[in-house]
Amino acid sequence: MRTVLLTKPRLPAWLARIRQRSRLIAPVPDADGVLDWREVEDPAQVVLPPGAPELPLKKVFFPPSETMLRYAYRGDRAAVTDTPPALEPFVVFGVRPCDALAQRIADLVFLGDLPDPYYQARRQAATIISVNCTEALPECFCASLNNALTEAPGSDLLLTPLNGDYLVEALTAKGEALLAETADDPTAASEADLARKAEVAAQTAAQQTRQIDVEGLTELVRAAYHDEEFWKKQAEACVGCGVCTFLCPTCTCFDVRDDAVSGRGLRFRCWDTCQFADFSKEASGHDPRAQQWQRQRNRICHKFWYSVDRCGVISCVGCGRCLRGCAGHSDIAAAIENLRARAREEKPVTADE
Amino acid sequence: MPNQTDQLRETCKRLLESGEVKKVIGYREGRAPYHVSPHFAETPEECDALVLTPFCTQNLVRYLRGLKPEDGKVAVVVKGCDARAVNALIAEHQLTREQVYLIGVPCQGLVDVDKLAKRVNLAQVQEVRVEGAQVVVRTAEGEQPFPAQDLLEDCCLVCEYPNPLVHDQMLGFEVAPRNPEGVDAELERIEAMSPEERQEYFRRAFSRCIRCYACVRTCPLCYCTTCFAQQNKPQWLPRSVGTDENEMFQLGRAMHLAGRCVQCGGCDRVCPVNLPLRLLNAKMAREIREAFAHVSGLDAEKPPPLATFDSQDRDIAEGNNYDR
Amino acid sequence: MSDVATDQRCQPCALKDNPYLPHLATLTLVREEGPNLMTFEAQFNDPEVARTFTYMPGQFIEVSVLGVGEAPFGLASVAGPHRPVRFSVQKMGLVTTALHGLSEGATIGIRGPFGNGFPVLAHKGKDIWIVGGGIGLPPLRSVIEYLRENCHDYGKVCIVYGARSPQMLCYKDCLLEWGREEAFELNLTVDVGDETWNGHEGFVPAYLEELAPSPENAVAYTVGPPIMIKFVLQTFDKLGWPKGQVFASLEAKMKCGFGKCGRCNVGPKLVCLDGPVFSAEELQHLPWI
Ligand SMILES: Cc1cc2nc3c(=O)[nH]c(=O)nc-3n(C[C@H](O)[C@H](O)[C@H](O)COP(=O)(O)OP(=O)(O)OC[C@H]3O[C@@H](n4cnc5c(N)ncnc54)[C@H](O)[C@@H]3O)c2cc1C
Ligand code: SF4
Ligand code: SF4
Ligand code: SF4
Ligand code: FES
Fold first, then answer.
1. Domain range spanning residue C84?
2. Which residues in chain A touch residue C263, judged by CB atoms under 8 angstroms apart?
3. What is the pLDDT of residues A180-190, one digit of tens each?
4. Is the dihedral of CA A194, A200, A201, A203 positive or negative?
5. C227 and C109 within one domain
6. DSSP-assigned states of every residue in C50-112
7. Which end of chain C, N or C, is less packed with Cβ atoms under 10 Å?
8. Hey, how many other C-beta atoms are within 10 angstroms of the C-beta on C92?
9. Residue C63 in contact with residue C95, Cβ under 8 Å?
């Protein structure tokens, strides 16, 4: 795979060339200065603040709301048509490594044996250009969890800022092709450049003040499952909104509903979360997670246990968004520390596993 | 404000030790000074974590929801806006005065973390103090003062009632209101817009809403078990996320809060996509004040005007002209 | 996911590679079954789908009422080319109420089949105990009818079925037929009888304990309200049944039906994908009740 250098001033021209070939999506502020994944008209609009932007990359592939099918019915006759997104290839620029990895994790849910056609169509159409972090936010803790800063899994191209240059690494054939078609006479990178990249990654990692120690973590979470007092304490300040899960790049739960008037209707899906009161409430009134602490427990267990069981990965990438967004500043890394403290106190394990 | 914090801890320990209250709801510091979380103390030892800083943003009155008489008395730390929320809830029969022990904190204003981040590197921040017209930020390099105007939360800059109007005990001395005249320049800027400009401004904002319901769930006055926006029998509005639905949701919410919102800024602060919720609610508050001379939370005896019928209301007494 | 269970499931019959797209079907039978319970049979409009739509006992479908929404129901029929699909519906909320308002000839949508189903293929040659409560019988009917059609492959089939009152026993016509089957043993009970009832009175788990089935070369399948399942499993335990021989079908709130929407999890398992049928062995590690 190709690894080249691009001088910083040449970035806008490169993006402009990409933009000529296909749609380009990146963090772009609106007139109120709020960043979102928007279509880029002019490369100068792109803003890359330190850390992951407030809204996760998943929004590009799994929008907060989307129509799945339309139908018409009259008397005993009906017709249903699906509305898959027919997509031309597009490029997403300015993805942080944690988000690219998170998208890989979301793939494990949405793709697989029976893929979700809406998600798949967007995913296949996209080429992801990640831009490595040089500055970690106080809420970031990816380095303790994964290799996002060094390997950026899920990215097709990875840009790492090195003083006056970007080191551009093609990580997939898709990335390689995009680079070949759009890079304007780049300089080949040297071993020394790669070494500088490793330094940048190490420096960013060193700035991170939070950590999650993953050693034996799944077992710890499993063992704490039945410790009601522990989870109640963790969830005390939780108000039961959807911020932590809606902003989380790996949370992918959704609701499916119909909306119809006079014989015409549509079925749509929209983001949903295990934090909402009616998420798992059965029609009979029975609710396996009737209390907020049970919902928070589900969230943590999902990240560090259920995902590991089902997909073989921890589904927290350490972006810190849940902490940044939480009204009560509930800190997932602190919750894990409390879990370890609980284990150290050697509380009797009440789980039957 | 070290003395205030000591005083707070002492008070809370005493309240728990004497059995006067079952629980104390206050604030504790997170890993960073600007991450302050609600703290729930049930033992005197747990009171040692209590803090008072300019980042004590949460309206703790929200956590009184579902408090039953048999749960015993709960002590709550209240700022000016929080104390008004207590009054408003009492007026709406959601709480009785006897259920709570109010520890009043005269409030110099809260520091807006987003504004702070634009001026200093958050990772370096060690302490932040509000001192009248100044906000002093301490980092490893020393202390740096900023004009309060630049760093305080919008809702604090326009706050008329920083001193808790209702309390069982007050920590420290009353402070002078920053905005005794009730001027709200930002609101006036929006009011001065042409209807088209205003529509564009709000439609753009509504288009951003992701319907996380953080605004609803943090609000002390949004105590409906299920928000109308989430109900499905009957379904008032679709769950789908779009500018129209979001607008219906937020305008519906603003109407439900008209004359009830206490301007704590909780919803505005927590919105991940910066909807100007404070402005919507401030506008409703202003309208209600003009029409009914009612300000939410000033009087625990006075229910919100839109929830009452009074034959002396102006539109009835003077005859309404809507049918014309 | 137990291997036995995955081996035999029928994969969803997806239209245009879109598992969310329902097949249109026409109601060919709408029958009042009991208080708030109705039985429906539907035939797919597309003859090719009608010919090929296949499923195993214990799998479920997602049924759409256009304009209202979708809900999961256990299949109550046995698969076969051009055979109508049967399910019974208790009136609960939006979709179920709308279904109760439909009559023969109405168009509905059907997606599926989903879930693993009961591992009948792995249990050839065994005695099968079928334990059902209330509206748990319709999904069990798919098993019972399957066993009836393939009776030479199985040993004795013992049905233990109970409801709150004689009136609430569903599928009375089927019960009569099954009672006449030679290879079948039918045991009915009601919580509280009335003047029409001269059968057994008492809860299903208690009756099961009285009947004291032997675990020897036998397996058991149960469907019913969670609390009944809990006690039925305890009863089998008491009777010395190994946990790997008892299977229960769980209920959970569902939307997608195939592991995407995330709401039906019981601990790390997704009821729609890894279930709805779980062995008592799996259930002891799951926080399902
Ligand atoms: C595998 C499986 C098999 C099943 N088999 C059968 C069967 O054979 N027969 C049978 O009768 N049942 C069966 N069920 C149960 C059946 O699926 C439910 O009864 C059915 O889904 C109820 O749907 P509803 O639309 O009528 O109910 P609703 O409760 O109206 O559900 C519609 C939606 O509205 C929401 N909702 C409901 N009330 C409220 C509220 N107050 N506020 C906010 N939101 C609300 C719910 O969250 C739900 O998403 C089965 C379930 C499963 C999982
Ligand atoms: S759980 Fe929190 S920190 Fe982890 S990936 Fe999700 S939002 Fe980021
Ligand atoms: S509407 Fe917003 S500002 Fe008003 S009381 Fe509720 S949270 Fe506070
Ligand atoms: S907090 Fe903001 S994004 Fe969330 S529902 Fe409220 S207005 Fe919408
Ligand atoms: S019903 Fe959607 S994941 Fe199970």
1. 23-114
2. 253, 272, 274, 279-280
3. 989 877 788 88
4. positive
5. no
6. HHH----TT-EEEEEETTTEEEEEE--S---TTPPEEEEEE--SHHHHHHHT--TT-EEEEEE
7. C
8. 15
9. yes
What are the tokens at A64? 């907060």
- Round to whole Å and give the CA distance between A102 and C39: 45
Calculate ∠ Cα A339-B77-B10, nearest 5°: 85
In a domain? residue C143? yes
Ligand 1 atom at minimum distance from C70 CA? 25
Q: In this structure, are C130 and C244 located in the same domain?
A: yes
Residue carrying structure tokens 């105590």: B223
* Single-letter code of the amino acid located at C273: L
Of C67, C71, C268, the CB nearest to A73: C67
CB B113 within 8 A of CB B22: no
Q: What is the ipTM of this complex?
A: 0.91
Q: Which two tokens stand for residue A300?
A: 């943590």
**Which tokens sit at B187?**
């609101």
Please give the full DSSP string across B136-176, using - where no structure is assigned: EEEETTEEEEEEHHHHB-HHHHT-S--S-SS-SEE-S----
Q: What is the CATH number of the domain that holds C223?
A: 3.40.50.80
Rounded CA-CA distance C112/C202 in Å is 37
Chain centroid to Cα B108, Å, comes to 14
Alpha-carbon separation of residue A35 from A27, A29, A103, B268 (angstroms): 6, 4, 19, 17
Angle at A329 between CA A323 and CA A333, to 5 degrees: 50
B141-156: per-residue pLDDT in tens?
Answer: 999 999 999 999 999 9
C-alpha–C-alpha distance, residues B128 and B133, integer Å:
14
Rounded distance, CA B194 to CA B189, Å?
10
Structural domain contains residue B239: no
Residues in chain B with CB shorter than 8 Å from the CB of A332 are none
Q: Are B274 and B294 in contact (CB under 8 A)?
A: no
Q: Do A110 and C260 touch (CB under 8 A)?
A: yes
Does C71 sit in the ligand 1 pocket, CB within 6 Å? yes
In a domain, C98, yes or no: yes
Q: Assess whether C244 and C129 both reside in one domain.
A: yes
Find all residues with CB under 8 Å of A4, minimum gap 6, and list them: A167, A168, A179, A183, A186, A187, A188, A189
The kind and range of the H/E element at A342 are: helix A332-344
Residues of chain C with pLDDT under 50: 1-6
Subunit contact A77:C19, Cβ cutoff 8 A: no
In this structure, is residue C8 part of a structural domain?
no
Q: What is the pLDDT of residues A223-261, one digit of tens each?
A: 999 999 999 999 999 999 999 999 999 999 999 999 888
A335 closest CA partner among A289, A304, A290: A304
Q: Which residue from A minimizes the CA distance to C262?
A: A253
pLDDT at C16: 74
Nearest by CB to A255, from C12, C255, C268: name it.
Answer: C255
CB B31 to CB A331 under 8 A?
yes
Ligand 3 and B219: CB distance under 6 A: yes
Question: Do residues B135 and B148 make contact, with C-beta atoms less than 8 angstroms apart?
Answer: yes
Q: Which CATH number is B145's domain given? A: 3.10.450
Q: What is the pLDDT, as a whole number, of residue A349?
A: 47
Amino acid at the residue C187: N
Is the residue at C285 inside a domain? Answer: no
Determine the atom of ligand 5 nearest the C-alpha atom of C257: 1
Mutation site for C-interface testing, chosen from A252, A284, A295, A313 by largest number of C Cβ within 10 Å = A284
Same domain for C174 and C227: yes
Query: What is d(CA A326, CA A242) in angstroms, rounded to the nearest whole number?
Result: 9
- C265 closest CB neighbour out of A114, A267, A306: A306
Residues C134 and C184 in one domain: yes
Mean pLDDT over each residue of chain C, to the nearest integer: 91
Give the A window 261-320 contacts with C, CB below 8 Å: 263, 265, 267, 269, 272, 274, 279-284, 286, 288, 298, 301-302, 305-306, 309-310
CA C49 – CA C24 distance, rounded (Å): 10
